[in-house]
Amino acid sequence: MINTNHTKSDAKTVNLYNQAYSENYRHFDEQYIGMPDYNHFVPLLKRLTAEFNRPIKVLEVGCGTGRYFHALNNTVELTGIDISGPMLKLAENPLKGDEVNIPMINLIEGSVFEHDFGKEKFDFIYSIGVLAEHAPFTQHICTKLYNLLNDDGVLYFTAVDIDDRKDFKRKLAETAYPLLPGVIRGILDKRWETNYMTYRQLDQMMAASRFDEYEISTYRAEGGGWVGAHLECIARKHDALTKSLFV
Ligand SMILES: C[S@@+](CC[C@H](N)C(=O)[O-])C[C@H]1O[C@@H](n2cnc3c(N)ncnc32)[C@H](O)[C@@H]1O
Question: What distance in angstroms lies between residue 62's CA and the mean position of ligand 1's atoms?
C-alpha cells in the first residue's frame, strides 16, 4: 500500500507547486515566524547543526523557498534541491535572508530520486515536509541518502503519520481486510496507496537500512500550517572507527 512510484508523485508535485502556489508559500513564510511549528523546527535544526562543532556541508531535500536556511549553524556550503522551479527561484531570497550565514549556496532544480550528485557528500541532510508526504520514502532513497552522507553524518527528516489520518470507517475496513475476497482487497490496495507511513513501516525501513543508529519520534502539529501527527527520524552514520566498535 506504500507507493513506490516516485515518477507519479514527482509529476503531481511539479503540477501543484506552480508559480502562484509557490508565491503563496513564500508569502506565508513571513507569517510563519514565531508560530508553534516554526518554534519546533527552527530550534531543532539549530541544535542538530550546532552539535557538529565544526564546519559542515549540508543538503536540504525539497528545500522549497528556503524557509529553514537561516536555522543552519556551522554550515559552509548548502545544497538545496527541489523539483519545483518556482519554489527554487524564491529560495534565492529566503526567509530571514539577513540571518543566513552560509558562504556558498547551490540550488539545484530536479528530483532527488533522479539527480546524480556525483562524488558529492554531505555531513548533514535534512528534509521537512517532503518524504513520505509529497514523495515516497523508498528503500532506494533511503540508501541514496545514506550514501550521500560522510562518515559521522546525520540525516533528519519528517514523514506523515498515516495512522493519525485514519477515520473509524478506515480502521474498520482494515480490520476486515484479511477476510475480504482478493478482488476487494485489490481495490482497497489501490485506493489506499499512499506516500504516508505508519510508525511501524518507517521503523522497519530504518531497521533494514545501513544506518548505524536512528530514533523516531512523533510531532503533533500545534499551529503554523502543519496538520496532525508527523513522524520525525534522526539517523546517524558512524565513522569507520566507531562502526568497528559496534560489530
Ligand atoms: C511542503 S514543501 C516543503 C518545503 C520546505 N522543505 C519547507 O519545509 O518549507 C515540499 C517541497 O518538496 C519538493 N519536492 C517534492 N518532491 C520532490 C522530489 N522528488 N525532489 C525534490 N523536491 C521535491 C516540492 O517541490 C516542495 O517544494
Answer: 3
